[in-house]
Amino acid sequence: MTSSVSDIKRLFIGQIELEGRRAMGYILSCGDVIEAVGHGTPPTVECVEVETFPEPMTIKQGDFNAHSHPEQSIYTDLVDRSWDLGTWCRNTIYRYSPFITPKQVRLACRRAFGRIALLGASSVMVSFYLHGGKGNVNDREVIAAAKDVGIRLIFGRMTYDMVSPQAYEGKKKAQESYYESPDQGEAYLRELMADEGPTVMVAPAVHSMHASTAQAIERAINLGYDLKRPVQFHLSEDQGDVDISLKEHGVRPVVFLKSMVDSCRIPGLGRLVFSDCCWLDDQERSIMADCSIPVVLNPRMNHRVGVGESDLPSLLSSGISVFLGTDGEASNDDLSVQGEREFLKGRYSGVLSSSKIEALGRQPFQFLDGEIGPLAPGRLCDFVVESDGRTVHLFVGAEPVVRDGTLVNLDMEGDIEAPLAEEIEAMKKTVEI
Fold first, then answer.
1. Where in the numbering of this chain does the Amidohydrolase-related domain appear (predicted)?
2. Domains in the chain, ordered, with CATH?
Protein backbone atom coordinates (compact mmCIF):
# COMPACT_ATOMS: atom_id res chain seq x y z
CA MET A 1 0.00 0.00 0.00
CA THR A 2 1.39 3.41 -0.97
CA SER A 3 1.77 5.96 1.84
CA SER A 4 0.08 9.32 1.43
CA VAL A 5 2.01 12.51 1.93
CA SER A 6 0.21 13.00 5.23
CA ASP A 7 1.59 9.81 6.79
CA ILE A 8 5.09 9.66 5.30
CA LYS A 9 7.58 9.08 8.08
CA ARG A 10 10.92 10.87 8.09
CA LEU A 11 13.79 10.35 10.49
CA PHE A 12 16.34 13.10 11.20
CA ILE A 13 19.47 12.14 13.15
CA GLY A 14 22.23 14.28 14.66
CA GLN A 15 23.25 16.36 17.62
CA ILE A 16 19.99 17.78 18.95
CA GLU A 17 19.33 20.45 21.55
CA LEU A 18 16.46 19.53 23.88
CA GLU A 19 15.66 21.30 27.15
CA GLY A 20 19.05 22.98 27.11
CA ARG A 21 21.05 19.78 26.64
CA ARG A 22 22.88 18.89 23.43
CA ALA A 23 23.52 15.23 22.59
CA MET A 24 23.07 12.74 19.77
CA GLY A 25 19.42 12.15 19.07
CA TYR A 26 16.64 12.17 16.53
CA ILE A 27 13.33 13.54 15.31
CA LEU A 28 10.78 11.16 13.81
CA SER A 29 8.02 12.91 11.89
CA CYS A 30 4.76 11.59 10.54
CA GLY A 31 3.62 13.97 7.85
CA ASP A 32 4.24 17.45 9.23
CA VAL A 33 3.98 16.48 12.91
CA ILE A 34 6.63 15.18 15.29
CA GLU A 35 5.88 11.60 16.27
CA ALA A 36 8.91 11.07 18.49
CA VAL A 37 11.97 13.09 19.51
CA GLY A 38 14.75 12.52 21.96
CA HIS A 39 18.37 11.88 22.79
CA GLY A 40 19.84 8.46 22.25
CA THR A 41 19.11 5.74 19.71
CA PRO A 42 16.23 6.44 17.31
CA PRO A 43 13.31 4.04 17.14
CA THR A 44 13.25 1.31 14.49
CA VAL A 45 10.56 2.26 11.98
CA GLU A 46 9.91 0.83 8.53
CA CYS A 47 9.50 2.88 5.35
CA VAL A 48 11.16 6.09 6.56
CA GLU A 49 13.28 8.64 4.78
CA VAL A 50 16.44 9.08 6.83
CA GLU A 51 18.67 12.16 6.93
CA THR A 52 21.75 12.50 9.11
CA PHE A 53 23.43 15.79 10.05
CA PRO A 54 27.11 15.33 10.99
CA GLU A 55 28.83 17.37 13.67
CA PRO A 56 29.35 20.24 14.28
CA MET A 57 25.76 20.76 13.08
CA THR A 58 23.04 20.91 15.73
CA ILE A 59 19.28 20.42 15.38
CA LYS A 60 17.29 23.08 17.26
CA GLN A 61 13.77 24.42 17.52
CA GLY A 62 13.13 26.91 14.72
CA ASP A 63 12.62 30.49 15.83
CA PHE A 64 9.21 32.17 15.77
CA ASN A 65 9.31 35.77 14.55
CA ALA A 66 6.13 36.83 16.30
CA HIS A 67 5.67 40.33 14.87
CA SER A 68 6.52 41.35 11.33
CA HIS A 69 5.52 43.82 8.64
CA PRO A 70 7.22 42.03 5.71
CA GLU A 71 6.17 44.43 2.98
CA GLN A 72 8.33 47.08 4.67
CA SER A 73 11.42 45.27 3.42
CA ILE A 74 10.93 47.27 0.23
CA TYR A 75 12.12 50.37 2.14
CA THR A 76 15.22 48.79 3.71
CA ASP A 77 17.77 50.54 1.51
CA LEU A 78 15.93 53.89 1.50
CA VAL A 79 15.94 54.79 5.19
CA ASP A 80 18.18 56.86 7.44
CA ARG A 81 18.97 55.24 10.79
CA SER A 82 18.66 58.60 12.56
CA TRP A 83 14.94 58.98 11.76
CA ASP A 84 12.48 58.92 14.65
CA LEU A 85 9.16 57.13 14.17
CA GLY A 86 7.30 60.14 12.79
CA THR A 87 10.03 60.93 10.26
CA TRP A 88 10.34 57.26 9.35
CA CYS A 89 6.61 56.97 8.66
CA ARG A 90 6.55 60.19 6.63
CA ASN A 91 9.39 59.02 4.39
CA THR A 92 8.32 55.39 3.94
CA ILE A 93 4.80 54.11 4.48
CA TYR A 94 2.97 57.43 4.25
CA ARG A 95 4.89 58.39 1.12
CA TYR A 96 4.77 55.15 -0.84
CA SER A 97 2.27 52.65 0.54
CA PRO A 98 -0.91 54.15 -1.03
CA PHE A 99 0.63 53.38 -4.42
CA ILE A 100 2.23 50.00 -3.68
CA THR A 101 1.40 47.37 -6.28
CA PRO A 102 0.60 43.71 -5.72
CA LYS A 103 3.85 42.77 -7.46
CA GLN A 104 5.82 45.00 -5.12
CA VAL A 105 4.09 43.50 -2.10
CA ARG A 106 4.94 39.98 -3.19
CA LEU A 107 8.58 40.73 -3.96
CA ALA A 108 9.10 42.70 -0.74
CA CYS A 109 7.54 39.86 1.27
CA ARG A 110 9.65 37.28 -0.56
CA ARG A 111 12.70 39.28 0.52
CA ALA A 112 11.52 39.45 4.14
CA PHE A 113 10.43 35.82 4.42
CA GLY A 114 13.55 34.60 2.65
CA ARG A 115 15.80 36.53 5.01
CA ILE A 116 13.77 35.43 8.04
CA ALA A 117 14.16 31.78 6.99
CA LEU A 118 17.90 32.16 6.36
CA LEU A 119 18.18 33.59 9.88
CA GLY A 120 16.68 30.45 11.38
CA ALA A 121 13.01 31.29 11.89
CA SER A 122 10.56 28.66 10.70
CA SER A 123 7.41 30.64 11.57
CA VAL A 124 6.38 34.28 11.31
CA MET A 125 3.33 36.24 12.47
CA VAL A 126 2.42 39.16 10.22
CA SER A 127 0.33 42.27 10.81
CA PHE A 128 -0.94 43.53 7.46
CA TYR A 129 -3.12 46.53 6.70
CA LEU A 130 -2.01 47.69 3.22
CA HIS A 131 -5.29 46.64 1.64
CA GLY A 132 -5.31 49.62 -0.72
CA GLY A 133 -9.06 49.52 -1.21
CA LYS A 134 -8.62 46.30 -3.20
CA GLY A 135 -10.10 43.75 -0.80
CA ASN A 136 -7.72 40.82 -0.48
CA VAL A 137 -5.59 41.46 -3.57
CA ASN A 138 -2.51 42.62 -1.65
CA ASP A 139 -3.22 40.25 1.24
CA ARG A 140 -3.06 37.26 -1.07
CA GLU A 141 0.35 38.39 -2.33
CA VAL A 142 1.72 38.20 1.23
CA ILE A 143 0.37 34.66 1.59
CA ALA A 144 1.72 33.72 -1.84
CA ALA A 145 5.17 35.02 -0.88
CA ALA A 146 5.18 32.88 2.27
CA LYS A 147 4.23 29.84 0.22
CA ASP A 148 6.92 30.72 -2.34
CA VAL A 149 9.56 30.62 0.41
CA GLY A 150 7.98 27.78 2.40
CA ILE A 151 7.89 29.52 5.78
CA ARG A 152 4.99 28.97 8.20
CA LEU A 153 2.74 32.05 8.30
CA ILE A 154 0.22 33.40 10.78
CA PHE A 155 -1.39 36.14 8.71
CA GLY A 156 -3.02 38.84 10.82
CA ARG A 157 -5.49 40.59 8.53
CA MET A 158 -5.76 43.95 10.19
CA THR A 159 -8.73 46.29 10.36
CA TYR A 160 -7.60 49.92 10.22
CA ASP A 161 -10.72 52.07 10.39
CA MET A 162 -9.64 55.56 11.37
CA VAL A 163 -8.50 58.51 9.25
CA SER A 164 -7.05 61.46 11.14
CA PRO A 165 -8.76 64.65 9.90
CA GLN A 166 -5.86 66.78 11.13
CA ALA A 167 -3.19 64.63 9.41
CA TYR A 168 -0.97 66.07 6.69
CA GLU A 169 -2.03 65.15 3.17
CA GLY A 170 0.34 62.23 2.62
CA LYS A 171 -0.59 60.56 5.90
CA LYS A 172 -4.28 61.08 5.28
CA LYS A 173 -4.05 59.55 1.80
CA ALA A 174 -2.21 56.56 3.26
CA GLN A 175 -4.80 56.08 6.00
CA GLU A 176 -7.59 56.30 3.45
CA SER A 177 -5.92 53.48 1.49
CA TYR A 178 -5.75 51.31 4.64
CA TYR A 179 -9.31 52.07 5.72
CA GLU A 180 -11.96 49.38 5.98
CA SER A 181 -15.07 49.34 8.12
CA PRO A 182 -15.37 46.55 10.71
CA ASP A 183 -18.04 44.92 8.50
CA GLN A 184 -15.74 44.98 5.48
CA GLY A 185 -12.81 43.74 7.53
CA GLU A 186 -14.72 40.73 8.81
CA ALA A 187 -16.09 39.86 5.37
CA TYR A 188 -12.65 40.00 3.77
CA LEU A 189 -11.12 38.02 6.63
CA ARG A 190 -13.62 35.20 6.25
CA GLU A 191 -13.10 35.23 2.48
CA LEU A 192 -9.33 35.04 2.92
CA MET A 193 -9.58 31.95 5.12
CA ALA A 194 -10.10 29.99 1.89
CA ASP A 195 -6.39 30.59 1.25
CA GLU A 196 -5.33 28.75 4.39
CA GLY A 197 -3.32 25.56 4.13
CA PRO A 198 -0.88 23.40 6.08
CA THR A 199 1.51 26.34 6.52
CA VAL A 200 -0.89 29.32 6.50
CA MET A 201 -3.31 30.47 9.20
CA VAL A 202 -5.41 33.63 8.80
CA ALA A 203 -6.36 35.53 11.95
CA PRO A 204 -8.10 38.80 12.85
CA ALA A 205 -6.08 41.82 13.95
CA VAL A 206 -6.55 45.48 14.77
CA HIS A 207 -3.94 48.18 14.57
CA SER A 208 -3.88 50.32 17.71
CA MET A 209 -5.72 52.84 19.84
CA HIS A 210 -4.89 55.51 17.27
CA ALA A 211 -5.96 53.60 14.16
CA SER A 212 -8.81 51.32 15.28
CA THR A 213 -12.18 52.33 16.68
CA ALA A 214 -13.71 50.64 19.69
CA GLN A 215 -16.11 48.94 17.27
CA ALA A 216 -13.25 47.46 15.25
CA ILE A 217 -11.49 46.28 18.40
CA GLU A 218 -14.68 44.68 19.70
CA ARG A 219 -15.36 42.96 16.36
CA ALA A 220 -11.83 41.57 16.08
CA ILE A 221 -11.76 40.14 19.59
CA ASN A 222 -15.16 38.51 19.14
CA LEU A 223 -13.96 37.07 15.84
CA GLY A 224 -10.90 35.67 17.57
CA TYR A 225 -13.07 33.81 20.03
CA ASP A 226 -15.50 32.69 17.32
CA LEU A 227 -12.73 31.40 15.03
CA LYS A 228 -10.39 30.31 17.85
CA ARG A 229 -7.55 32.45 16.48
CA PRO A 230 -5.09 34.92 18.03
CA VAL A 231 -5.87 38.63 17.69
CA GLN A 232 -2.90 40.96 17.24
CA PHE A 233 -2.93 44.47 18.66
CA HIS A 234 -0.17 47.14 18.74
CA LEU A 235 -0.49 48.22 22.36
CA SER A 236 1.06 51.42 23.74
CA GLU A 237 3.95 51.47 21.31
CA ASP A 238 4.28 55.15 22.07
CA GLN A 239 2.96 57.52 24.71
CA GLY A 240 0.40 58.91 22.26
CA ASP A 241 -1.75 55.78 22.40
CA VAL A 242 -2.01 56.07 26.17
CA ASP A 243 -3.00 59.71 25.84
CA ILE A 244 -5.69 58.83 23.27
CA SER A 245 -7.17 56.16 25.56
CA LEU A 246 -7.19 58.51 28.55
CA LYS A 247 -8.87 61.23 26.51
CA GLU A 248 -11.43 59.02 24.75
CA HIS A 249 -12.20 56.48 27.48
CA GLY A 250 -10.89 57.97 30.70
CA VAL A 251 -8.59 55.02 31.41
CA ARG A 252 -5.39 53.48 30.08
CA PRO A 253 -5.60 51.04 27.12
CA VAL A 254 -5.55 47.70 28.96
CA VAL A 255 -8.06 48.97 31.53
CA PHE A 256 -10.31 50.06 28.67
CA LEU A 257 -10.11 46.61 27.09
CA LYS A 258 -10.94 44.99 30.44
CA SER A 259 -13.98 47.28 30.68
CA MET A 260 -15.23 45.78 27.41
CA VAL A 261 -15.21 42.37 29.12
CA ASP A 262 -16.93 43.74 32.22
CA SER A 263 -19.69 45.26 30.06
CA CYS A 264 -20.10 41.94 28.15
CA ARG A 265 -19.09 43.44 24.81
CA ILE A 266 -16.43 40.75 24.43
CA PRO A 267 -16.03 37.34 26.13
CA GLY A 268 -12.49 37.91 27.37
CA LEU A 269 -8.98 39.07 26.56
CA GLY A 270 -7.25 35.70 26.34
CA ARG A 271 -7.17 35.67 22.53
CA LEU A 272 -5.22 38.94 22.32
CA VAL A 273 -1.53 39.14 21.50
CA PHE A 274 -0.05 42.55 22.34
CA SER A 275 3.03 43.89 20.60
CA ASP A 276 5.53 46.53 21.81
CA CYS A 277 3.95 47.51 25.19
CA CYS A 278 6.43 50.32 25.87
CA TRP A 279 4.08 52.35 28.09
CA LEU A 280 2.38 49.96 30.51
CA ASP A 281 1.82 50.53 34.20
CA ASP A 282 1.56 47.99 37.04
CA GLN A 283 -2.24 47.79 36.86
CA GLU A 284 -2.13 46.96 33.17
CA ARG A 285 0.53 44.29 33.67
CA SER A 286 -1.59 42.76 36.42
CA ILE A 287 -4.64 42.57 34.14
CA MET A 288 -2.55 41.05 31.36
CA ALA A 289 -1.15 38.40 33.68
CA ASP A 290 -4.62 37.56 35.03
CA CYS A 291 -5.98 37.24 31.48
CA SER A 292 -2.94 35.30 30.15
CA ILE A 293 -2.24 37.86 27.41
CA PRO A 294 1.16 37.26 25.77
CA VAL A 295 3.38 40.11 24.65
CA VAL A 296 5.62 40.37 21.58
CA LEU A 297 8.58 42.68 22.11
CA ASN A 298 10.35 44.44 19.23
CA PRO A 299 13.19 45.94 21.28
CA ARG A 300 15.66 46.91 18.56
CA MET A 301 12.98 48.65 16.49
CA ASN A 302 11.58 50.50 19.52
CA HIS A 303 15.08 51.66 20.42
CA ARG A 304 16.02 52.70 16.89
CA VAL A 305 12.96 54.89 16.23
CA GLY A 306 12.88 56.21 19.79
CA VAL A 307 9.32 55.33 20.84
CA GLY A 308 10.18 53.95 24.27
CA GLU A 309 11.18 50.71 25.92
CA SER A 310 9.29 47.68 27.20
CA ASP A 311 10.00 46.87 30.85
CA LEU A 312 11.09 43.26 30.33
CA PRO A 313 11.95 42.51 33.99
CA SER A 314 8.50 43.70 35.11
CA LEU A 315 6.76 41.69 32.38
CA LEU A 316 8.57 38.52 33.42
CA SER A 317 8.11 39.07 37.14
CA SER A 318 4.37 39.55 36.46
CA GLY A 319 4.25 36.11 34.85
CA ILE A 320 3.48 37.42 31.35
CA SER A 321 4.55 35.22 28.45
CA VAL A 322 7.02 37.09 26.22
CA PHE A 323 7.67 36.43 22.53
CA LEU A 324 10.03 38.32 20.23
CA GLY A 325 9.53 39.97 16.86
CA THR A 326 11.47 42.22 14.53
CA ASP A 327 8.70 44.49 13.18
CA GLY A 328 9.73 45.73 9.72
CA GLU A 329 13.22 45.28 8.32
CA ALA A 330 13.48 48.94 7.37
CA SER A 331 13.09 50.06 11.00
CA ASN A 332 15.41 47.41 12.43
CA ASP A 333 18.98 46.21 11.94
CA ASP A 334 17.81 42.95 10.35
CA LEU A 335 15.12 40.27 10.79
CA SER A 336 16.96 38.06 13.28
CA VAL A 337 15.03 36.96 16.37
CA GLN A 338 18.35 35.94 17.89
CA GLY A 339 19.49 39.50 17.25
CA GLU A 340 16.68 40.67 19.53
CA ARG A 341 17.89 38.30 22.24
CA GLU A 342 21.45 39.54 21.94
CA PHE A 343 20.26 43.15 22.19
CA LEU A 344 18.29 42.32 25.34
CA LYS A 345 21.28 40.53 26.87
CA GLY A 346 23.29 43.72 26.53
CA ARG A 347 20.45 45.91 27.76
CA TYR A 348 19.76 43.79 30.85
CA SER A 349 23.27 42.60 31.64
CA GLY A 350 23.45 41.98 35.40
CA VAL A 351 19.65 42.21 35.69
CA LEU A 352 18.39 39.16 33.77
CA SER A 353 20.38 36.00 33.15
CA SER A 354 21.47 35.08 29.65
CA SER A 355 19.55 31.80 29.96
CA LYS A 356 16.32 33.62 30.81
CA ILE A 357 16.68 35.83 27.74
CA GLU A 358 17.62 32.86 25.55
CA ALA A 359 14.31 31.24 26.55
CA LEU A 360 12.24 34.18 25.26
CA GLY A 361 9.99 33.32 22.34
CA ARG A 362 10.57 29.58 22.52
CA GLN A 363 7.27 28.63 24.17
CA PRO A 364 4.38 26.91 22.33
CA PHE A 365 1.98 28.90 20.14
CA GLN A 366 -1.26 27.79 18.49
CA PHE A 367 -1.27 27.14 14.76
CA LEU A 368 -4.67 25.98 13.43
CA ASP A 369 -5.29 22.64 15.17
CA GLY A 370 -1.61 22.19 15.95
CA GLU A 371 1.16 23.95 17.77
CA ILE A 372 4.55 25.40 16.99
CA GLY A 373 7.16 25.50 19.70
CA PRO A 374 9.73 23.36 21.52
CA LEU A 375 10.45 20.05 19.78
CA ALA A 376 8.03 17.52 21.26
CA PRO A 377 5.67 14.77 20.09
CA GLY A 378 2.47 16.18 18.62
CA ARG A 379 4.01 19.52 17.69
CA LEU A 380 4.60 20.68 14.14
CA CYS A 381 7.92 19.45 12.77
CA ASP A 382 9.70 22.78 12.33
CA PHE A 383 13.41 22.94 13.11
CA VAL A 384 16.69 24.54 12.16
CA VAL A 385 20.06 22.88 11.72
CA GLU A 386 22.83 25.24 12.79
CA SER A 387 26.60 25.29 12.73
CA ASP A 388 28.47 28.03 14.62
CA GLY A 389 25.26 30.05 14.88
CA ARG A 390 24.65 29.93 11.13
CA THR A 391 21.55 28.41 9.54
CA VAL A 392 22.66 25.46 7.42
CA HIS A 393 19.24 23.85 6.91
CA LEU A 394 15.68 24.79 7.86
CA PHE A 395 12.66 22.47 7.82
CA VAL A 396 8.99 23.49 8.05
CA GLY A 397 6.53 20.64 8.49
CA ALA A 398 9.48 18.28 7.89
CA GLU A 399 9.96 19.81 4.41
CA PRO A 400 13.23 21.60 3.52
CA VAL A 401 13.05 25.39 3.16
CA VAL A 402 16.80 26.12 3.44
CA ARG A 403 19.51 23.72 2.22
CA ASP A 404 23.20 24.40 2.71
CA GLY A 405 22.50 28.02 3.56
CA THR A 406 20.40 28.62 0.43
CA LEU A 407 16.65 28.90 -0.11
CA VAL A 408 15.26 25.71 -1.63
CA ASN A 409 12.30 27.13 -3.56
CA LEU A 410 13.62 30.51 -4.77
CA ASP A 411 16.80 32.02 -6.10
CA MET A 412 17.53 34.99 -3.84
CA GLU A 413 19.00 37.10 -6.62
CA GLY A 414 16.96 36.09 -9.65
CA ASP A 415 13.58 35.63 -7.99
CA ILE A 416 13.79 38.38 -5.39
CA GLU A 417 16.58 40.95 -5.38
CA ALA A 418 16.90 41.73 -9.10
CA PRO A 419 13.18 42.19 -9.83
CA LEU A 420 12.67 43.98 -6.52
CA ALA A 421 15.46 46.45 -7.36
CA GLU A 422 13.58 47.34 -10.55
CA GLU A 423 10.36 47.83 -8.60
CA ILE A 424 12.09 50.02 -6.02
CA GLU A 425 13.41 52.29 -8.75
CA ALA A 426 9.90 52.55 -10.17
CA MET A 427 8.48 53.23 -6.70
CA LYS A 428 11.01 56.01 -6.03
CA LYS A 429 9.60 57.91 -9.00
CA THR A 430 6.26 58.12 -7.24
CA VAL A 431 5.28 61.76 -6.74
CA GLU A 432 5.47 62.62 -3.05
CA ILE A 433 2.20 63.90 -1.64
1. 64-386
2. 5-61+378-397 (2.30.40.10), 63-363 (3.20.20.140)
